[in-house]
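Archive maintenance. Older records in this collection stored only the sequence; we are now back-filling the structure field for every entry so that each record is complete. The fields below show one back-filled record exactly as it appears after the update. Entries are processed alphabetically, and Acyl-CoA thioesterase is next in the queue.

ARCHIVE ENTRY
Title: Acyl-CoA thioesterase
Organism field: Aquipuribacter hungaricus
Length field: 146
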Amino acid sequence: MPVTTVPVAMRWSDMDAYGHVNNTEFFRYTEQARIEALAVVKARPDTGTLVVRHEVEYLVPLTYTSSGVLVDVWVTHVGGAGFDLGYEVATQDEAGGRTVHARSASTMVMYSFSAAAPRRISAEEREFLARLDGPPVQFRRSTRQG
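Back-filled structure field:
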């Protein structure tokens, strides 16, 4: 599975009154990783990507660590104007072992600011996204009816 791994710094203030990283901070971690992993997709003028759906499953509580987190990002589906991303937010111990704290998925849409509407994914963008192709996120419990 082609994955881009992005190290993301943590802040002490990411933790909440319960002594673990607040759930909303996981969205920030995946956002930072997504921005870095997809910088090429956003290179076109007057265009961007919008998050239209986000799902997260918390697996193991996360506490502050000065080494930050590692966020794996990959593409799980590419459509006409949108694409889906998968993520794993993990920490790595001194021996190199990883603990996955959360899995999540986002549905993104390519957007034209001048037209104020979604736009088709270009051939170059499609080629770039294909290089990050991977499997669907394996949630423990699916909320989708199927």
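Update note: Residues 30 and 71 are 7 Å apart (CA to CA). Residues 23-37 form the longest helix (15 residues).
Entry marked complete.
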